[in-house]
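Page 42, continued from yesterday. The earlier attempt failed because a stray header line got pasted into the input along with the sequence. Redoing it now with the clean sequence only.
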Amino acid sequence: MTLPQTGSDAETKAKVQVTPTFVSFLCYRIDPATRPRERSRAVADEFRNLLENPGAGLEVRPYLTAAFRSDCDFFLWLIAKDPALFPGFVSRLWTTDLGRRLVNAHSFLAVTKPSPYLPGHLQHFERGPATDSYCFIYPFTKTHEWYQLPLEKRRDIMKVHNEIGHQFPGVKIDFMLAFETSDMTEFSNLVQRLRETEARPYTAADTPLIPGLKKTAAELVESLAL
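This time it went through. Structure tokens are written below.
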């Protein structure tokens, strides 16, 4: 896990703290009862065009989850500075032929904030396009007791997390949480180590864990057999 480093550039730090980034993970499955018997080029092109042209200020990263999860076929990672762009995108999705056949299995919304443990860090997804093969959506809910601990105590506990993370440089952590990697085994080993740390009892929930295989819009359309 390559953790964000504390930057020395004051302008970058200020940008991170003043202009937060919003992310939304939308997990969908295609309703089998409404799936067409035959593939349709029009349906495929309409969906692909939406993913490739989501609108100004919005980035969409597609991931295939078929074979990894039974409750969803794919998820879309939406990234924007303005969260109002997310509902607009979903409204456009609903107007497509495929959109009317989709069931929303999970939705997650988050906003980046300056970390109390690593001030001034920049999220990996904000540094450029995704390069790793997999993304794991792995939302965490901390217990009330965690937030009652003194900040210094929490920093000490998370320091152990950071030290373990640096032992797995092929796994990158992003806010929410989402982990990007090209090696599933390395991610599995990292999670096993982290579950043995002092912070683990302060985790109230860490499900669902949703793995996705990175795809271009065209590749996702082909994989879904549209």
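Notes: The longest strand covers residues 102-111.
Reminder to self: strip header lines before submitting.
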